[in-house]
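RECORD TYPE: inverse folding
INPUT: structure tokens
STRUCTURE:
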């Protein structure tokens, strides 16, 4: 299977679909969420995005559907190209698909020995190997700390710098071998997953593209339209939470001249919705998912 959709029912309910509305699924993947949206449409349209060329083979043959094989940071431009200026709902199921994890040569997984690639879009030039082999030590430490939430980021960046003196690090297995001395006594797998996550977020500029997406969602949604976001790590979730609360990424609510709060969204869920035990049992990759739903004011 290409990808098992996470929190499917709750996220589709969150969109509060109007049958003749216009909806956007910015992370098409295997099309699980898109198919469920189409199922609820009658007269409406769905525009989906995925920057991974592999996702294109899952496209849906339906005249109400368009798949855009580009980064969702260009959401507004591509919608304009398809004569769409306002939408009723936007769904984002962030991160990496199971397919991307499971194909060894994509380099996302710690389970296989593969080139250090990790590009979500095959059209991108740089790979994770470029980060590992060219970034200054300070920058490596920053991204490992910020995006991997690794306490010993200094140890990993130092080990990478030392290794670089005698040659390039080209594969996932080489990277794992050279940073071995930084492994904590327990939780080796979790530690490696955090290292890989940090490299992936940096390479694909995931935090910046999420910010661009949220800002455009704010402009595109009609009043009453829904924003539905599933995130998989705390950094993403914090951005989404702050944006829904305050319309900015600091989470600080600005006030107008009279002291009234200036907000763009009403949160539909005060706390994020998480998968139940049954879903996690069936699909372990759902375990870190957090779903937030907001309505445009
Ligand atoms: C978790 S999967 C989505 C799975 C999908 N909801 C399903 O049911 O199959 C995330 C997908 O979003 C894509 N993606 C992630 N960031 C993107 C971006 N900035 N622009 C376009 N696609 C992106 C990835 O390539 C991946 O296929």
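DESIGNED SEQUENCE:
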């Amino acid at each position: 299977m290409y990808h098992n959709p996470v929190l499917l029912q709750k996220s589709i309910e969150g969109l509060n679909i109007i049958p003749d509305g216009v909806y956007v699924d910015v992370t098409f993947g295997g099309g699980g969420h898109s198919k469920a949206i189409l199922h609820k449409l009658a007269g409406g349209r769905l525009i989906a995005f995925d920057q991974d060329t592999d996702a294109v083979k899952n496209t849906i043959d339906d005249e109400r559907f368009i798949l855009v094989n580009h980064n969702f940071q260009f959401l507004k431009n591509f919608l304009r190209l398809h004569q769409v200026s306002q939408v009723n709902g936007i769904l984002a199921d962030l991160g990496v698909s199971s397919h991307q994890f499971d194909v060894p040569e994509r380099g996302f997984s710690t389970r296989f020995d593969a080139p250090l690639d990790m590009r979500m879009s095959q059209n991108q030039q740089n790979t994770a190997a470029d980060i590992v082999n060219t970034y200054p030590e300070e920058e490596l430490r920053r991204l490992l700390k910020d995006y991997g939430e690794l306490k010993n980021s200094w140890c990993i960046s130092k080990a990478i710098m030392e290794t670089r003196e005698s040659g390039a690090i080209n594969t996932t297995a080489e990277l794992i071998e050279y940073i071995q001395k930084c492994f904590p006594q327990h939780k080796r797998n979790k530690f490696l997953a955090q290292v890989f996550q940090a490299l992936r977020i940096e390479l694909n500029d995931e935090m910046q593209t999420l910010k661009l997406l949220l800002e455009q969602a704010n402009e595109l949604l009609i009043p009453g339209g829904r924003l539905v976001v599933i995130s998989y790590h705390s950094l993403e979730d914090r951005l989404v939470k702050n944006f829904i609360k305050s319309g900015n990424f600091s989470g600080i609510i600005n006030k107008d001249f009279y002291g009234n709060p200036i907000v763009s969204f009403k949160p539909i869920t005060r706390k994020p919705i998480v998968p139940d035990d049954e879903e996690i049992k069936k699909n372990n990759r759902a375990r870190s998912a957090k779903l937030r739903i907001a309505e445009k004011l």
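NOTES: The chain has a mean pLDDT of 97.
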